[in-house]
Each structure stands twice: as structure tokens, then as C-alpha cells.
User: Which sequence fits this backbone?
């Protein structure tokens, strides 16, 4: 019980990180090097209020974001991916907590979405933080409360970027970091695994066909784990290509029996949006069940900060009281912007232990179609927006 309580605390701290903490910033404003291309306007896909996909508008005369802190860089975006959170945020998902995080130097509307990117550094703050020179091509992520990458330019802290592995192309580089850092954080912090030493670990990934799922499978296999996967029928060849021990078709009538036959797992990672309830309803056997589908932001949207937080604590404790009867712990996991995580993904990609899976590439002008594709679901990898050089 004592260990369980401390793991709950870890999960709650992770939730608090998502809700309450912004990236540390230096207080003095920074002079930036002049823009390589001295335009001050850019095109960006933005929303001006919450609603459905029709809120997404191309704003051709938006001000290029400026560097406000010495450790920031301005990136000319070449490609960016669309994630389920972008679609959810159009509907107002997370607005209560994210507005709390935005109050320092970010505004809510107009809101540019987009959490990861590949591009070129065109300007940087005067801090010593970033060793990469202007002109470097980089990949990176944008924390969820900041203005995003579905625009010609984005500003991020320099520790949110790194050079790109030289064995992947622009669209592949843009597709990876948001989902890969989500998987990394779930395995590192929520499952408490040592990612370089997972030999003998028995893991199951639910939803191995999606962005987070395929990253989790590849990280687990690279670390030596024995991995089982679930996905639907048409995704089996894709998931088998990662080299798991077995792949179960969740739409087959024998699925539940086959899953039960596999026995108890050290860790089950839910990358399919199934949540804590799925583990209980299906009597899954696990030491640790990690899910990326958590009620934290939704509770705060629906109930406000205080009642939302209290409800969230109860949402975490109740399923754990049930699961602990069988010795299993349920933890929640979140995307964590982290230079350590970016380095881990860089190394895996460079050594070909992890490959990007891009399902579809849309041109920047067709960004709403890219969002629609993500909204429609059943993804087999990532959806990427290409900005190229022609904007
Ligand atoms: N907490 C966080 O910070 C965080 C960050 C990123 C993502 N997430 C969440 O994590 C989940 C995965 O994200 P993603 O970007 O990987 O989404 P995604 O690309 O849409 O992948 C989800 C995959 O799960 C499959 N799937 C659906 N139902 C399934 C089931 N019952 N069993 C097995 N597979 C199933 C889907 O394909 P089929 O429907 O065709 O089977 C799809 O390939 C989403 O719910 C997302 O909201 C959370």
C-alpha cells in the first residue's frame, strides 16, 4: 500500500505538471538577432473561438511571433503534424487549465494549434542556452499552452528542439516528437521503467497502430521488452513490422480469450483512448496499467479548477482500490516536453531502432482536411502538414 500511495503521488504530480507548470523562463527580455527574411507577417491556421472544425481559418496577415526570452528560438516551420489534441482543442478541450498556464505571456485567441514541427532556426535569443546556430534544421515540440506550429513560424524554448536524425526526411521528422515524447513519458515516469534495460519485461500495448502506440511498441522492443500488441484487422501487417512477440486483433471474437491466455503483464500501455475503466471491465491482468486517457483537463473544464481537481483525485483512487485487490496499479500518463526525451528519440531513430510512420501528408493550404482525417480516427501512423519552401 505504501508503494501504491507513492506511485499515486507520482501520477498526481505529473497531472499537476500538465495543469500548473509552465516551462521555466528567464525574466529579462531578450534582444533577438534580426530575422533572416525581414517580413513581419506570416500565414497561420487559427481559431478565434471554440467550436467545430469550421472554426479553423487561414490568417494570412498574422504577426510573426517574437522572441521574448533569451533562451527562445524562432523557427521557420517546414512541416508539422496534426494530433488528436489539436482537434480536441478546437472544441475547447483543456481551456480552463491551459488559460491558467497562459496568463503570463500567452493569449488564448487567436489560437494557433500544432504541437510538433520540423524547420529551420531563423533567429534566436541572446542566451547561451542553445548551441545550434541560425540556419540549423531542427525538430521540436511546443508545450500545450503555447501558440503552436500550424503556422509559417513558431517560437519555442531552445531546449524543445534538437538537430534532426540524418536518416529521416522533413515530413517524417515533423511527425514524431509529440507522440514519441508522450510514449517516452508514459514508460519513464508513469510505468517507472528503465528504458535501456527492459530485458525480460512483459508488456502489452493497446492501440499499437496509432501514433503513441507505435512509438511505445518501438521503444519497448528497443529496450529489450517482450511486447504483445492489440490493433484491428487491417493494421496487423503494420504492427507486425515492429517485431512484437504477438499481435491480437481486438475485433476478433476470440480476442478476450486470447488475451487472458497471455497471462499477467508487467505493464499494459493504453494508447487507444480506452481509459482506466477498460482495465477493470475486461479483467486485464497487470502489475501496472498506464493510460494516456485521463479525466484531468475535462474535469477542470466541466467542474472548475477546485472541484475538478478533487474529482480527479477520486477518479484516480477509485479504480486503484479495485485493481489493487489483484496487485495491479493504474497510473495516468501525459505528453512531457523534455530535452532528455528528445535525445532518447533521436538516438533510437539514428540507430534505426525506431522508424517514423506517416499515414498522410497534406499541403498547408489543405490543413482543414488534415484535421478532418485525424478527427475521423482509425489512424495508421501520423498525419503531417507540409509547408515546404513555397509559402
Ligand atoms: N495524456 C496525454 O498527454 C496524451 C498525449 C497524446 C495522446 N493522448 C491520447 O492517447 C491516445 C492515442 O493517441 P494517438 O495520437 O496515438 O491517437 P491515434 O493515432 O488516433 O491512435 C489510436 C489508435 O488506437 C486504435 N484503436 C481504437 N480503439 C482500439 C481498441 N479498442 N483496441 C486497440 N486499438 C484501438 C485506432 O485504430 P482503430 O480505431 O482503427 O482500431 C488508432 O490506430 C488518444 O486517446 C489521445 O487522446 C494523450
Assistant:
Amino acid at each position: 500500500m505504501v508503494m501504491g500511495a507513492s506511485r499515486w503521488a507520482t501520477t498526481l504530480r505529473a497531472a499537476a505538471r500538465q495543469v500548473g507548470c509552465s516551462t521555466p523562463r528567464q525574466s529579462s527580455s531578450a534582444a533577438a538577432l534580426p530575422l533572416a527574411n525581414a517580413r513581419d507577417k506570416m500565414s497561420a491556421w487559427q481559431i478565434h473561438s471554440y467550436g467545430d472544425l469550421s472554426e479553423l481559418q487561414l490568417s494570412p496577415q498574422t504577426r510573426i511571433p517574437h522572441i521574448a526570452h533569451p533562451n527562445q528560438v524562432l523557427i521557420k516551420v517546414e512541416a508539422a503534424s496534426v494530433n488528436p489534441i489539436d482537434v480536441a482543442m478546437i472544441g475547447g478541450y483543456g481551456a480552463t487549465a491551459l488559460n491558467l498556464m497562459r496568463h503570463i505571456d500567452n493569449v488564448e485567441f487567436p489560437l494557433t494549434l500544432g504541437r510538433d514541427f520540423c524547420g529551420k532556426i531563423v533567429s534566436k535569443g541572446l542566451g547561451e542556452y542553445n548551441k545550434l546556430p541560425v540556419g540549423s534544421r531542427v525538430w521540436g515540440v511546443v508545450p500545450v499552452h503555447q501558440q503552436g506550429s500550424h503556422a509559417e513560424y513558431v517560437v519555442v524554448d531552445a531546449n524543445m528542439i534538437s538537430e534532426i536524425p540524418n536518416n529521416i526526411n522533413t515530413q517524417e521528422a515533423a511527425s514524431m516528437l509529440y507522440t514519441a515524447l508522450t510514449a517516452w513519458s508514459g514508460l519513464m515516469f508513469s510505468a517507472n521503467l528503465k528504458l535501456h534495460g527492459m530485458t525480460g519485461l512483459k508488456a502489452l500495448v493497446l492501440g499499437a497502430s496509432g501514433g503513441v502506440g507505435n512509438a511505445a511498441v518501438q521503444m519497448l522492443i528497443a529496450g529489450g521488452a517482450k511486447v504483445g500488441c492489440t490493433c484491428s484487422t487491417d493494421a496487423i501487417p503494420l504492427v507486425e513490422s515492429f517485431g512484437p512477440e504477438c499481435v491480437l486483433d481486438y475485433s476478433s471474437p476470440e480476442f478476450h480469450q486470447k488475451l487472458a491466455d497471455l497471462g499477467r503483464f508487467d505493464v499494459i500501455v493504453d494508447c487507444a483512448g480506452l481509459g482506466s475503466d477498460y482495465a477493470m471491465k475486461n479483467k486485464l491482468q497487470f502489475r501496472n496499467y498506464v493510460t494516456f486517457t485521463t479525466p484531468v483537463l475535462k474535469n477542470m473544464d466541466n467542474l472548475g479548477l477546485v472541484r475538478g481537481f478533487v474529482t480527479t483525485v477520486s477518479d484516480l483512487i477509485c479504480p486503484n482500490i479495485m485493481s489493487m485487490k489483484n496487485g495491479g496499479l493504474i497510473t495516468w500518463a501525459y505528453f512531457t516536453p523534455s530535452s532528455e526525451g528528445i535525445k532518447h528519440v533521436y538516438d533510437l531513430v539514428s540507430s534505426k531502432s525506431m522508424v517514423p510512420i506517416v499515414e498522410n501528408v497534406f499541403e498547408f493550404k489543405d490543413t482543414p482536411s488534415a484535421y478532418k482525417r485525424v478527427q475521423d480516427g482509425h489512424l495508421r501512423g501520423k498525419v503531417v502538414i507540409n509547408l515546404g519552401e513555397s509559402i
